Amino acid sequence: MQGAQYSSNAYRYDVNFLFSSLKPAIGSNRQKQFNRNTIICNKYKIDINLNNSINPRTMTKFLKKDQLSSNWFEIDAKNAVVGRLATIISKIIRGKNKTTFTPHMDDGDFVVVKNIEKIKFTGKKFQNKRYYRHTGYPGGIKETTPEKLLEKKPGEALKLAVKRMLPGGVLGKKQLTKLKIYSGNDHPHAAQNPKVIEIDKLNNKNTIRN
Question: What domains appear along the chain, each with residue ranges and CATH number?
């Protein structure tokens, strides 16, 4: 028999079947043949298809630590919808916009968001949406709204939306640090020459037009 392979191939085996234990009934015409203590050996050829998905030649190649590289992108959050903007950012900082996406590696890019104070919520979420947290003490549950968050921490609503789209654990925390949020048009990352992404051209529903 041939050795095991890691690809989908068809093999042909020569198999010998022994029928010495298959004796005919007493009184039949074939009984005389088995009284001679002969062994009838029949040879068959069997085609077997082996399908194995573990093929080193076609298996996805994962990135190594020394192959990681990060780019910089800039997004203007003026009149941008929070949820739609968060989906775009989460894909970029996870690295899912690349053909070399590796789930367990930090191969994402940096995203700079400006004009965060002009971000928008659809419907009545700006007043009615609730964010909950717990202090850890009995009865220590706290709640707030995007309207209150915008006054204290303008970028917290977007950061929470992106955080919940990332994997949990150490990898998700590390990827979240690639999100840079600033109020106004100015930011300290001009030296990185970030590529501007116009989200309204990706989909006209990404922004709210007044």
Answer: 9-50 (no CATH), 65-206 (3.90.1180.10)
